[in-house]
Specification:
The chain is α/β, with parallel strands linked by helices and about 525 residues long. The protein has helices at about 30-35, 50-60, 75-80, 100-105, 120-125, 130-145, 155-200, 215-300, 300-310, 320-365, 385-430, 430-435; strands at about 1-5, 20-25, 40-45, 65, 90-95, 110-115, 205-210, 440-445, 460-465, 465-480, 485, 495-505, 515. Helices cover about 55% and strands about 15% of the residues. Helix 8 (about 215-300) runs antiparallel to helix 10 (about 320-365) and helix 9 (about 300-310) runs antiparallel to helix 10 (about 320-365).
Amino acid sequence: MVKIVTKPDPPEEALTPPTILYFGQSADEICDLVSPHIGSMSIEYAALINEALALVRAQKFNIIIVDLRQDLSKQLLVPLLQDLKYEFKLIVIAQLSDVSKCLNMAGVSRVLTSPLRSLQLSRALGLDPTKKRHDKIKLAEEEKKEIQISPNRGRSPLIWLSNLGMQLVSTAYKRLAFVLLGILFISFTFYGVMIGFFLMSSGWAAPQTLTRGHVLVDRMEKDIGDLRLALNMNKQRLVEATQRAQDAERTAGEAQILVNFAGDTILKEIVSRERQVRVIDQNVTRTKKVQSVFERQLRAGGLSDDLAKLYGKHLIDRKTYTSNTLGLLETGQRMAGIETQLDLLGSDRAQLTTQLKMLQSLKTQLTQTGPMSDITAASSDLLLLTKQALDARAAFDTARNEFEVSNKTKQTLLNSEVVIEKQIITMESSTLGRAISERVDVLFVPYGNEAQFKEGAALYTCKFTMFYCWKAGIVGQVLPGEIASVHPFFGKPIRGFFVEALLTDIQAATREIIHAGRAPLYF
């Protein structure tokens, strides 16, 4: 428990001092807030509910302040205060979110919110914090009247020097005021001239310096990097295509060897079967001659009659007759065998002829280009040869096609490499490309001023925006694309484009604007 008593008023202003009980964390804040009050007052402080109850029961308090900002449990004191037998003013200090809850408490006459202000607390306590300030002003005025020097009194040297200094200060102040007014007039005049210039002129542009880090330069560097990556990938694909072409050429050579081997084999087979056909033709010719002799003998029939006559005349015996008769029968049988042999020879010749046609067609297909689709059917003994020939030709065609495709891809990649290299050289030699490795000065030309900024036009820079100008260079090439910027005088967004500035005066790039064609005021 702490008792705090403020400084008392003078005796003529003495009043009954109010007694205040503050129930909270610390009374320092309350004391600081009520310090502007003039008069005596008693502020007692209690931190516990038991201490507060003991105080309010031991003496009477005009005002009881309950601080609930940091501890809402202290609100238990409020209903206990209703049992007091004397009148008092109950003030609650709470957070803004708890105001409605505190207003509903019985006996609460005022709720103050955090943070507390001196005027707010003084009004709640019924004090007048302005009285002290009025008294101080009144006292200061009286002291000022007392120390004033009467005009009828004589002036001392110190006072005369003081008056002289005041006159000099006043004169200097007046002249300084005129100078400031003149400066303001010149500034406003210059401001008006500038507004008129930017509204009427179409020959100005804003200089800028492009270096690495600028968004356009970084974008150009990224594009060049992408092209270099594409060039490296193109070279890698070119190496792969060259390797595929070499592999295909080697495979085609190997397949050509197999095709030649199959062709030689087919040719030998053709020669062998043609010789077999000739042999069969010769056998058929000879067999047909024998057959014609036997046929003539059998058709004549004289030999059988002669044998019968000779046997009837007993010129030959029975055995000779029988043997000769059997010979005739054997001749008939041989005739039947010859016919069978001729049929077999004809069948063999037909089979050989079919094989020859198949071998001829296979040989023709091997020597010509295109797919092998017209091949005559053959016997089973030629299937292996046919398969080998087809596989060799297919491998050769595949390798040849791969070689042709690889060569075409190689040529396309070579053309692409030339195009990419030219594009990289063009981009590196452009304004933005040169800005990657060196300083490049450009001009932002707003739309509407492009007629003055043709390539080769003279550029002028000025010391004071429009005054004291000299030639600073010429206009270079126009950079592609639209650029958004801010007006150098009005500050509003404008659109335009960049042109390169070939400056002879590098300092011109650091000024706010630059002029094209001529100086704005011809000097």
